[in-house]
Amino acid sequence: xxxxxxxxxxxxxxxxxxxxxEREADLLLKxxxxxxxxxxxxxxxxxxxxxxxxxxxxxxxxxxxxxxxxDGKGLYAIPGLIDAHIHFESQLAHPTALAEAMVPxxxxxxxxxxxxxxxxxxxxxxxxxxxLFRDYEQLPYRLYAFAPGKKTAASVTExxxxxxxxxxxxxxxxxxxxxxxxxxxRKAAWVRAKGGxxxxxxxxxxxxDMILNYLPAIGVSNNHDxxxxxxxEKSIRYGFPTHIKFGVGSSEVIKVLLRAIVDRKWxxxxxxxxxxxxxxxxxxxxxxxxxxxxxxxxxxxxxxHAIKMAxxxxxxxxxxxxxxxxxxxxxxxxxxxxxxxxxxxxxYVFKDGELVAKDRKLLKNADIDYSGMCKDGVSGLADLSxxxxxxVPLEVSEDGTQAKVYLFDVYGRGHAKFYQEIxxxxxxxxVVAEHEGKKMSRLSxxxxxxxxxxxxxNGLFKGVHxxxxxxxxxxxxxxxxxxxxxxxxxxxxxxxxRVDTHAGACIVTDDRxxxxxxxxxxxxxxxxxxxxxxxxxxxxxDAALEALGNRNEGEPVVNKLLSLFISLHRFRxxx
Length: 575
Fold this sequence. Notes:
Blueprint: H1 3-19, E1 25-36, E2 41-50, E3 53-57, E4 66-71, E5 76-79, E6 81-87, H2 95-102, E7 107-113, H3 115-121, H4 125-133, E8 142-147, H5 154-160, E9 166-169, H6 174-177, H7 182-194, E10 197-200, H8 209-218, E11 222-223, H9 229-237, E12 242-245, H10 251-264, E13 271-274, H11 280-285, H12 289-298, H13 303-309, H14 312-317, E14 335-338, E15 346-351, E16 354-358, E17 361-362, E18 395-396, E19 402-409, E20 419-427, E21 430-431, E22 434-435, E23 438-439, E24 441-447, E25 456-462, E26 470-475, E27 481-486, H15 489-499, E28 505-510, E29 513-519, H16 531-547, H17 557-570
Parallel strand pairs: 1-4, 1-5, 6-7, 7-8, 8-9, 9-10, 10-11, 12-13, 19-25
Antiparallel strand pairs: 1-2, 2-3, 5-14, 14-15, 15-16, 16-17, 18-19, 19-20, 20-21, 22-23, 24-25, 24-27, 26-27, 26-28, 28-29
Helix pairs in contact: 3-4, 4-5, 12-13
């Protein structure tokens, strides 16, 4: 035998010996109510673990030798929860900080996009990917990643596809694949040759039927960009395993999607659950996949089906049902113990048969230093003037008393409501930040590095309101842009220039004095902080804004502002 064959011989011999009481197993979890996702039943039993995997259900304890016994005391045992699609950057936390907030919610596996960080890294994209994935196997959750399908050079995508734990190609850029971009052809060719997966992207009802045919025809593996019943109908009709997502601020959207599944009686085998984008604050206060499963059950989906949508269905979609997604022999011992199936309460979380979280507290984490990924800011706004932030009407009424301007809404109610053109008062040739008698804040979208004339879009904003002062933040991908909210152009300009001194940050100013700062030092998209530091920093931003007149609900303001860039890019408000 060669070395590999010998290792496998030893493994199969060891399992045989364990089941015959001649060698010790690692762990026996007993007195459980085990969820069988295949038969969709629950049965009383025990689970035997050896070398990170389940090796037996209901083993004969009279002959068993085992190092450790865990008494489940009648709790339900369900497979470790899986997020089918999450952006690493959306929660602003690096991988170990993410673990602090996510794993106690019962999530043991994620399928992650990293395109924004790698895009932000630019020429250092390959180095950034290597740093991001360094020691990933030490994390208390299972990580599968995707090379950028958009926002980076094709050469970066090609190199990242060769890294571990990358299993395929991330989101395509709908503006380019629908126009026949050659880089997209090459990216698709590379992943097809590798035998990997391709993530779909873009609301399917917004695509022509011919382009919608193109995606599954070239091997796109799934679709996570559905917003309504018609999107779902097309997505499953065209054979996409379809992700139902709960992202930043989108609680209204997921309820629409779940209600459609229930009302149309679509088989839930078509669906998986994911977050797409989620904040640390929401993970800590509402939960992760545990919360989404519970909401699905509340909306009328059979609880076992809801659990399968966040476990077995996802594993099967990525052809990994032999490794994860069920509590059966041969699968990794990723196990969650809960006292309810309809309202998931992850009391104990095991990954690879090791207890990693208890009572919503992480017990074990990787020790990985990400400080080497922190970057200094490269300023680009030295020549920005307050006048460039003044709102210029799109149109003026015949009597000169009204101006047509953009009104932007905070992301979360669906892209269709992201922006509109409205009429507001015009006084002495200046736009009055008021609509239907209600005072509003202003929003400016500002290009960081100008090549000639700087691209600036100004309008009104619904979602964050300040009576004075300003708040600004920055996002580097796919192009470096700022957003700033305020009432006065000079204050807004000053706030922007303060953010411009950082690689990335969210800053609140009042009368040109900094009131709160959240630095995003890791390529401008991640904070080099623990969860405690990150949540305290986000809370400080909210507290500073509350003093300026804002009354925030739901997500922290920093997450609301950063999520704007998704829609700003989609609707071409970034040059």
